[in-house]
Amino acid sequence: MMSSHASDGSCIPIRAPRHTNSTSMFDIHAPGHYCVVEDLHARWDFADHSAEGTLITINSDDVVLDLQGHTLGRGRLFKSSGSGDGISINGHRKNITIKNGIIRDFWCALYLADTYDLGAPDAANKENEDRFPPKQLYEIPKTNIIIESITFKNNDREIFIYGSNNIIRNNKIIRTENSGVKADGTAGPFAYGPFGRGTRATIIAHGSSNRIENNEIILTAKNYGFQSTAIYLRDGDGTVISGNKIVNKNEDQRNTSGIVLRNTKKVVIENNNISDVEKDIVIIREPEERSVKKN
Prior knowledge:
2% helix, 16-stranded parallel β-sheet, mainly beta, globular, 1 helix, 295 residues
């Protein structure tokens, strides 16, 4: 548990514990400005994947978490992506800023949602779609989360966020060879989409009036037959997607897309540079009223 007071009045330091035989996990329980002062790794000294958890959990509103250029990683035993989160939010927290660092090798780098929030486990299955209908916008809380100036590398998922009025800006996301792919070559965890075997997405945003701006997203993972997309919106009315650079560096463009919109209307998509993907924009379950300003 972290203290809510800094000795110098500026920020509350987060540093690795000096013992070596336990997990390096941190819980933030109070509002405040927190600063990571050294690289942090989720270290487990035994090869039990079920033991992997979240490196930093935020259990409070009104938190600024500044990584100060440091790296959050999964440590020496589990270099390839798998289970375990970098940073998660417990419940629907609001007024959170996470910025300035590197997050790598996690199952999900930033998991900012509850378990049910992203809906049906397989939207291609009509029965499941009926069981998990789209959220009504009044059910989605205003969370006011800012994610900025972070480099994401080799995570299964990068940003998994639920809520409205959030900002994701000035980040660099590198979807590498192993990201989102299990050892047997099948799909790892994915956004719940319409494409048979699911959709792998770097940014998954469920909620309205968000802004996704000036991010660089590089897709390099091999095509294993499931849809790979850079940005996936669900119930994203009023969202602005602007100034992003999305590029697929794999020679195989099959099953790749820049942006997926599901049950989303009145979204602005402008001044993005999307290249070398099969489809720039994919629309799922298009509402009766839709207004999209494209690139």
